[in-house]
Amino acid sequence: MSSPVLVCALRGIDAFRALGAALKGWTQGRARLSPGDSLPQALMALTPEVTFRQAILFFTEADLVTGKARFCCLYYPQVQEGESWRCRAESLFSYLQAGAQVLCTVLLIKPGLWSRRLPRILRDLHLEKFSVVGMKHLDLAAASASAILPSGVQQDPAALEAHCAYLTSGTALVLCLQRPNAVKKLLDLLGPEDPQLAQTLDPRLWRAQYGTSTVQNGFYGSKSYAMAVRDVKLFFPEGLCCAQCQDEEV
């Protein structure tokens, strides 16, 4: 009888590329082992279709339910404790069949930039397959300006004052954007907070093109999905023009 195997169902952003890179490093490490050492063999599915076919061989629908189901009563108060919550559980089989989930994120174009560059920015967003589902220009209050700053800036009084002074110096434009994997895609387009670092990494990054300093770096983008939900509620309390966005919850 052969030795047992470990079968894992993994989930993550850009999962096939990330896992492939990890296994490649594992294989390269095998070459550096001494003859008496060994590493386990590893195989991975290469496409969503193969993943689905292999997953149903080893797992049941009940096995592949996300942890969110355990907390569904927090998000769906109409579901009473003890009531069958499985109808609202999120099965990974369903995700495999449905494909990439369309998400929302928030882009804030800082004062002084959007009035000069908006047509080009909107064109580039269109080329990157973003849909604009919310847009408004507003004069930020100090509290709202502080809320979108990184924690490191918030803990530095001088930096906090400089950022808030700039963000409240004029009218900003806030966009709610929608596309699959919207949060990460937008962050990838913006690049690092420091425009000089962005310029070094890739001159095509938006902060490399439009930013002049870590304070006047052109843009704010939601750093995570949870922060995107918070930002939508902060800047669009009246709602959005897309019904799908209205249902998003952390």
Structural summary, described in words:
Belongs to the NDK family. It comes from Grantiella picta. This protein is α+β, with helices and mostly antiparallel strands. The protein folds into two domains: about 10-30 and about 45-65 and about 90-100, no CATH class; about 100-235, Alpha-Beta Plaits. The protein contains 13 helices and four strands. The chain has helices at about 15-30, 50-60, 70-75, 90-100, 115-125, 140-145, 150-155, 155-165, 180-190, 195-200, 205-210, 225-235, 245; strands at about 100-110, 130-140, 170-180, 220. It has a four-stranded antiparallel sheet, with helices on both faces. The radius of gyration is 23 Å and the shape is elongated. Residues about 70-90 have low confidence and may be disordered.
Question: How many alpha or pi helices?
Answer: 13
- The portion of residues forming beta strands comes to 5-15%
Distance between the termini: 47 Å
What is the helix content? Answer: 40-55%
Number of strands: 4
- Placed side by side, the strands forming the largest sheet appear as 2-3-1-4
Described by strand count, sense and barrel closure, the largest sheet is: 4 strands, antiparallel
Based on CA atoms alone, the radius of gyration comes out at 23 Å
Average pLDDT number: 80
Number of domains: 2
Structure class = alpha+beta
CATH architecture group name of the largest domain:
2-Layer Sandwich
Order of helices and strands: HHHHEHEHHHEHHHEHH
Shape: elongated
CATH topology of the largest domain: Alpha-Beta Plaits
Q: Residue ranges: pLDDT <50 for 5 or more in a row?
A: 68-89
Which CATH class of the largest domain is shown?
Answer: Alpha Beta
CATH superfamily of the largest domain: Nucleoside diphosphate kinase-like domain
Keywords: Kinase, Transferase
Organism: Grantiella picta
InterPro entries: NDK-like_dom, NDK-like_dom_sf, TXND_domain-containing
Protein name: NDK5 kinase
